[in-house]
Every structure is written in C-alpha cells, then in structure tokens.
Specification:
Layout lengths: L1 H19 L5 H38 L1
C-alpha cells in the first residue's frame, strides 16, 4: 500500500500547485497565440529564403 499512498500524496501536491497558478485570460491567450503564429511564419520564411540562397550558391559552385 505504500505505492498507493505515494501516488495519492503526489496527486494532492499537484492539485495544490495547480491552484497557485495564475492562468492567462482568454484575451491574453488569443493575443499570444497570434504572436507565436506570426513569429513562426516569419522565421519559416527566413529559413526558407536562406535555404534557397544557399542551395543556389552551392549549385553554382558545384557546376564550376
């Protein structure tokens, strides 16, 4: 039975810690999600552009 009491104690501690969390409002969550999506698209475009440039650059070098 010590395993079961350990699990129960762990779950009680998890519940206690979750009650201390300050959750963001719906509005904050939506704003932050939009920011993450925009940053992800920008980073994706930058990485894609860099990949394209390097592919063409090394393609020219290899053909020489």
């Amino acid at each position: 039975m010590p395993i079961i009491s350990g699990v129960i104690q762990y779950l009680n501690e998890v519940r206690s810690e979750m009650l201390k969390v300050t959750w963001p409002s719906r509005n904050q969550t939506v704003k932050m999600t939009i920011i993450v999506l925009i940053v992800s698209v920008i980073v994706g475009i930058l990485i894609g552009g860099l990949d394209l440039l390097l592919t063409r650059f090394f393609g020219v070098l290899i053909k020489r």
